[in-house]
Fold this sequence. Notes:
Radius of gyration: 19 Å
CATH class of the largest domain: Mainly Alpha
Strand order of the largest sheet: 2-1-3-4
Order of helices and strands: HEHEHHEEHHHHHHH
Bound molecules: glutathione
Helix content: 40-55%
Shape: globular
Amino acid sequence: MSARESKRLKTSPSSDEPFELLYWPGIPGRGEPIRLCFEETGTPYKDVANEANDGIKAVTSPIDPDNIGEGANVPPFAPPMLRRGDLLISQLPNILLYLGPKLGLVPNEEEDPNGIYFVNQLALTALDGLSNEPHDVHHPIAVGAYYEEQKEEAKKKAANYIENRLPKFIGYFERVLKSEASSGGEWLYGGKLSYADLVLFHTVDGVSFALPKAIAKMKESGKYNGVFALVERVRCRENIGKYLKGDRRQKYSLGIYRKLSSSDLDHS
Length: 268
Ligand SMILES: N[C@@H](CCC(=O)N[C@@H](CS)C(=O)NCC(=O)O)C(=O)O
């Protein structure tokens, strides 16, 4: 066996090793869809930075510019990260793709070998338009600069997002729910809840926090009833419902989903 092959084997955890989420403490952020996968399926996990006093070190250490990685793992660029045994992976959609088959949140591979790619496609689209773009609304110029330094640009970006991009993305998911692929319009794909539904729930919930008036208008229009019904369907799932009311759920604040002052939101 080559050194490379033996390294690869080292990062294949056995099925009983615990899942550890490494993400910034105190905000839902890009860690939330991962938490929702665990919560929905009743899978035990450790939310390291929120649960351990010095848990933040577990988040900062792997992304330290001097850290050249652990064993065969590629050094991660940013949280969220998932640790399981010797394996450490990052990038939210990549983590969802890893967890999907293990937690039963994608179609069975034998019955529908392409299903996982459709679920991934849907999750990526929701993350593009309902997570990454809302983040860029309040940070249109520089991720590392304060919102207050980019307020003028944020105002223009918010108006455009509310007018064009938000309805385009929510409208896309409404279209998906009407498609044959959805199988009935209850869930996005294959007539069964997948992690794409959890991502859509979280991202619409987050945008509803950040832009409540824009979302209220969309609800009133009656054009997106399928999407809003799906969001409520996820909210009322037994395990998710308990989680949302419990202590583990972090509150929205100044993360991806951030309320802008009313003067910044003429069009909302
Ligand atoms: N595309 C990545 C984005 C990761 C990301 O932007 N993480 C944020 C926290 S939500 C971060 O800390 N970024 C640090 C940076 O970009 O310098 C993903 O989906 O995981």
